[in-house]
Amino acid sequence: MSRNKLISVGLLVWYLAVSVWMAQAPVDPQFWLLASILPALFVVLLVVTHRFLPLSHTSYALITAFLTLHTIGVHYTYAEVPVGLWMDKVLHLGRNHFDRIVHFSFGFLLAYPMEELFRLSASIRGWVVYYLPVMTVLGLSGLWEIIESWVARAVHPELGVTYLGSQGDIWDAQQDMAAALYGALISMTVLLIVRALRGAETALESEAAFSE
Amino acid sequence: MATIQQRDKAQVGHRRIAMGLLFGYGSIWIWLAINPVNRHDWFLENLLAVGLVAVLLLTYRRFPFSLTSYSFIAAFMVLHAIGAHYTYAEVPFGFWLKDMWGLSRNPFDRIVHFAYGLLLAYPLRELLVSRAGLQGGWSYYIPASGILAQSGFFEVVEAIVAMIVSPELGSMYLGTQGDEWDAQKDMAAAFGGAILTMLITAALATCHDAREQQPSHRSAPSVVHQEGSA
């Protein structure tokens, strides 16, 4: 097995192990099932497309990190994740912020894989390379909120927004989307800076080589 | 030479129709600017609209949209001007629909959210295809995703404005009309409109390609010749 393959398989094994572990006695089995369908389909999609559209190890690692966070959140129905409860106690936030953190990391961790996907498969150029991932993150966050609202109305119409872990906040959907947007903006800014520095470096090197 | 003259003529025609659309929209806008239901709300609603028209005017030379796009944009802007005049929740046409369909609320703002996706996905696609080199299947998915993203962004901005302006009034201010799922439904309406337009655009493009394919053997050399002479 080559080193490349070893890393991808290692990430997959890690994700499966975490999933199996977190599938043991979830706090709310119905919620666990509903919220686990999409990630499972997503992983299958990644495995299937691995052959003809392989992403970089960085991308696969970022995706795995995000899915790990989501799996932990789903086990505890997000509103009861121990880390979030602990943060609430220490920082006096008034609510469990774990779900907001995962929304942020949706943008922060998945913007780069999206950038790579667009760069490799959609033949785009220029500033759009940085704009499209931010836009897509925001679009998918909106789609997620829409799907959530449908599921909530179908499963527990009497509970309304409380089912979504809004924890009594009427602006929950907007704040979740904003968190993802900030995450994506930060990661794209970092990418832009890293590329600018690296570009300056290679330019200097080639200049040095030329003068020699 | 003939082709250059034809092109000039086409450009003049394009400009004339685009100016006509601007004139039409301007007249309707001025008419609706007289005595709106709530001047303060009218002002807020029109900040973005005036900005968009200014951007379209300034970029006309460097990046003229197709007349189809300009017509779609103008149609959407007229709907928005009507909504701004009546503060959306009180548009008479919406009340008429409410009575006819037995709805619990005035649906005009939902219709305009739908129209946002339906009418502006096409211009957005045009912009992304010609400026960003978008091709193939992506060129149909990304405009729909972009409309959804802009709708989400709009809801976020609305929420921030509402929290600053009137935290205690909260959702009242936004014309949610007491619906806790208002933001999600608005976004879904825009996304649905955008998907519809992209499906129609894709279908038309496929039909067009199929028609081009048939006489390709005969037309191919003449295309090369035209390009050479122009």
Can you describe this structure?
The complex is a heterodimer of chains A (212) and B (230). Chain A has 212 residues and is mainly α. Chain A has helices spanning 3-22, 29-49, 57-75, 82-91, 98-121, 128-155, 172-211. The longest helix of chain A has 40 residues, at 172-211. Chain A is globular, with a radius of gyration of 20 Å. With 230 residues, chain B is mainly α. Chain B has one domain. Chain B has helices at 2-33, 39-58, 67-85, 92-101, 108-132, 138-165, 182-213, 216-229. The longest helix of chain B is centred in the first third of the chain and has 32 residues, at 2-33. Chain B is globular. Chain B starts with a helix and ends with a helix. The model of chain B is unreliable at 216-230 (pLDDT under 50). The chains are: A mainly alpha (212), B mainly alpha (230). Chains A and B meet through helix 6 and helix 7 of A and helix 5, helix 6 and helix 7 of B.
Overall mean pLDDT of chain B: 82
Q: Helical region count of chain A?
A: 7
Shape of chain B: globular
Distance between the termini of chain B: 7 Å
The percentage helix of chain A is over 70%
Question: What is the distance, rounded to the nearest whole angstrom, between the alpha carbons of the first and last residues of chain A?
Answer: 43 Å
Output mean pLDDT of chain A: 84
Structural class of chain A: mainly alpha
Look at the helices and sheets of chain B and give the structural class.
mainly alpha
Whole-number tally of structural domains of chain B: 1
Q: What best-fitting shape of chain A do the alpha-carbon axes yield? A: globular
Give a quick precis of the structure.
Chain A has 212 residues and is mainly α. Chain A has helices at residues 3-22, 29-49, 57-75, 82-91, 98-121, 128-155, 172-211.
